[in-house]
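QA checklist item 7 of 12: single-chain prediction sanity check.
[x] sequence parsed
[x] length recorded as 191
[x] structure emitted
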Amino acid sequence: MSVKIIPGTNIAYGDNKDAFSVLRPMIQITGGLSLGQICRITNLQSSTIQNWVKRGFVPRPEHKKYYERHLSRILLISALRDCMNIEDIGELMVLINGDTDDEGDDIISETALYDVFCEAVRELDEISLNMQEIEHCIDELVLHEDRNAKERLSMALKVMVYAYLCGKCLKQIQLNLSRLRGEQNEHEKQQ
């Protein structure tokens, strides 16, 4: 599984180390992204994003503009939703950073969380995927002074990475099943 696309988006990494170094200029140039721009970046429907905002999974946009914090949360949800339901993703986000509207209770900024998640996914993509390597990689990436916060963040990132990888596997399963069905139909036509 080669990760060439930034998780949760349709944008290629290029040579950039962290995902948000690709996304940040878009936000800065436009003075915040519109809902339509977010939809183009993520391939999500506007109604889906608006629903996430309404349900409190994503902070409300400021003057109809989405900034780094908003985009990070949207991208995390988008990357994880193939394998986790929205309520579980929302709960996971609360476990890491508490209330979406209160940055004071955050263990890590949404942007930093997203970048660490993307970095873990990229690094793990380059090694054979076994659970010990995944756990070790994430434990090495998580740097936090508070031991309890570090453990909580580390465990949450493990859940996120496993969910993302499962989502990628589920997509591959669906693709292979679709191909198999197509081949079966061709075989039946030939007989």
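[x] summary fact logged: The mean pLDDT is 86.
[ ] second reviewer sign-off
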